[in-house]
Amino acid sequence: ERSVNVSEPESLELTVSNLKPEETYSFRVVAYNEAGPGESSAPLRIATKPDLQVPSRVESLRALALSPTSIQVSWEPPSLPNGPVQGYRLLWTESPSGKEQSVEVSGLNYKMDGLNRFTEYTVRVLAINRYGPGTASESVSVTTQSDGEPTPIQLVISFNLLTLAD
């Protein structure tokens, strides 16, 4: 038990600091005068709130256009998760419309489908723990392919055919 003397007798409030988060404390008040201490008040039980520590930013956000209508996004977990990461929120904005969409993701990657052809998308990801969402990552911009643009797999096959012909 700890006691605190209030130096100003007319003061009817006191802020108690340096308490632990998510702990329950019991408070009592006793008035003093020349004759000594009076009767103690009934105990008041108060629980402190949790120390809200949301995750830091996810790391190494990457986005790659796979086709005219899809983008593959991947990232690494936050360096300071502040407890178990419960999931991720992927947000993307379409340019120039500014239309924003989001999806909850459990893993470290996601394939965005049903996108518009040859359109720029700005992508962000944030981690979520029991206290809520953390700070969003830096944005990454990627443009979906046009119909005539070969996919990365087609480029590799074409390169290999040229190499074999020599």
UniProtKB/TrEMBL annotation:
<feature type="domain" description="Fibronectin type-III">
    <location>
        <begin position="54"/>
        <end position="147"/>
    </location>
</feature>
<protein>
    <recommendedName>
        <fullName>Fibronectin type-III domain-containing protein</fullName>
    </recommendedName>
</protein>
<dbReference type="InterPro" id="IPR013783">
    <property type="entry name" value="Ig-like_fold"/>
</dbReference>
<dbReference type="InterPro" id="IPR036116">
    <property type="entry name" value="FN3_sf"/>
</dbReference>
<feature type="domain" description="Fibronectin type-III">
    <location>
        <begin position="1"/>
        <end position="51"/>
    </location>
</feature>
<dbReference type="InterPro" id="IPR050964">
    <property type="entry name" value="Striated_Muscle_Regulatory"/>
</dbReference>
<dbReference type="Pfam" id="PF00041">
    <property type="entry name" value="fn3"/>
</dbReference>
<dbReference type="InterPro" id="IPR003961">
    <property type="entry name" value="FN3_dom"/>
</dbReference>
<keyword id="KW-0677">Repeat</keyword>
